[in-house]
Amino acid sequence: MNQARVKAMILAAMCFALFMSYLDDTVVNLALPKIQIDLGAGVSGLQWILNAYTLPAASLVLTSGTLGDIYGRKRIFLTGLVIFTIASAVCGLAPNLSILIAGRTFQGIGAAALVPSSLAIVADTFSHPKQKMKAIAIWSAISGLALVAGPMLGGLLVDLLGWQSVFFLNVPLGAIAFCVTSCVVKEVANPSKQSIDVPGLLLSIILLASLTYALTESNAEAWQSPLTICLLLFTGLSFLVFLLVESRSSHPMLPLKLFKNSTFAVVNVVQVLIFFTIISLLFIFSLFLQQLQGYSAAAAGLRFLPMNAAFVIASLVSGWFAAQLGWRFTVTTGLIVASLATFSFIRISSNTEYAAIWWNLVLCGFGSGLTIAPLTAAAMSSAPRAQAGIASAVLNTSARLGGVLGISLQGTIFTQRLASDLKRSLSAWNLPSNLQDTVITYALHGGTQFPINLPASITPSALHQIMSNAFISGLHAVVLVASFALLAGAFLILAFVGLTANEATKKVEKI
């Protein structure tokens, strides 16, 4: 078979698997209301449908990257693909909440193996720098497309085919990816066959699981709650012990020497900031379009289509820009464009129509899309080829950590700002504190209900207006933080990634 065709088939198989794993980060959200009705789930049950996927997906990534380097990336990829595909079928057939949560847990385990292995296989398959940059650009475009297309695709599938369809979609994609990978991908493993760093593996799982759990729990409870504080303290202690163990291990699971390369270290921090922004903006604008603009789930998802298209186009052309101008310049430009576009949302009011903001979403998508592929290529190029699996795993962990931080931290900022602004308005009306708390609770649950014992002087329209204003106040706080996060990423690239490294990369890319 033609070598170019084989490489194209490998890339397609990796993209199929990648699309599945990232899609399940966001596509399930719009299916939750119907799942709640069909399976009789409470609010805590719905939270665990999401958390059961996030926890293993985030906490096992480093483990799978190391295992791929030792035992073979193809073997680990296929194992993760089988687990993910079977678990997706179990979720679609789940007769009750317990089975669904169990299926989601195994989906997360499979996803943890898929993403780092797929990137490592792509990097191994396309050895020429220019080809590698283009392949990684396509890989990055697919990952970004899956994340931002989740709300749109999820809304359409749920409305047309039921909530089970968001899981059954993975079954044919997984089968295609398995067949292609089995036939055309060559196995690559570390010839030294290093031993498994068991203490490092266990500590990394404990560390990432406790951090992820603490951050997700902080959405439902206050940051000062005993559970959250204990989990964060335990996370910090686990991190210190993990660093100590890895620094003294003869065969560390996470080679700390990777971070002595300033490019690799900075790229991972910037990756966190980018996904922090992308996920938090998807979150806040999904609420804005549905709760304030009154769109259905499917209609709100379709409003993200311009942003999706801009992200994909920018991801595809980012390799060309990086080859011509250098990845450092391309990433910095993308971050600044996305930061300015995000900051412009500070002008939004409760009456702002979608027609007035869609171009801001396009600029956000385009700016973010310019960054992902060059950052990924820079990280993979700065790591030894024998450690491509763990380098990919670290980068993926950074992305998932950014997403978790985006939902938890920005969700907390949004709810606290909304609550404080609403409380100030209600206090000005001299409303009793018990009624104030009730109104704030309703507002935090979408504002679809109102207390029946409100004073006659307070009309539903007036109450709805101050709820809308409080929502906008929370939105402004979120976009302000997101904008500064992107600007901080641009500063890190300019300040800590030297021109010499960037110029060397350009020279290699132009060979």
Helix content: over 70%
pLDDT < 50 runs, ≥5 residues: 500-511
> What percentage of amino acids are in beta strands?
under 5%
Mean pLDDT: 78
TL;DR?
The protein is an all-alpha fold. The protein has 20 helices and no strands.
Structure characterization notes:
- 80% of the residues lie in helices and 0% in strands.
- The protein is mainly α and 511 residues long.
- The two termini are 27 Å apart.
What topology does this entry show?
Blueprint lengths: L2 H24 L5 H8 L3 H17 L1 H11 L1 H21 L3 H29 L3 H33 L3 H4 L1 H15 L13 H23 L5 H23 L13 H31 L4 H6 L2 H21 L1 H17 L14 H25 L5 H41 L4 H12 L15 H37 L2 H11 L2
Helix pairs in contact: 1-6, 1-7, 1-9, 3-6, 3-10, 3-17, 4-5, 4-6, 4-17, 5-6, 5-9, 6-7, 6-17, 7-14, 7-16, 10-11, 10-17, 12-16, 12-17, 12-19, 14-15, 14-16, 15-16, 15-19, 17-18, 17-19
Supply the key terms.
single chain; 511 residues; mainly alpha; 20 helices; globular
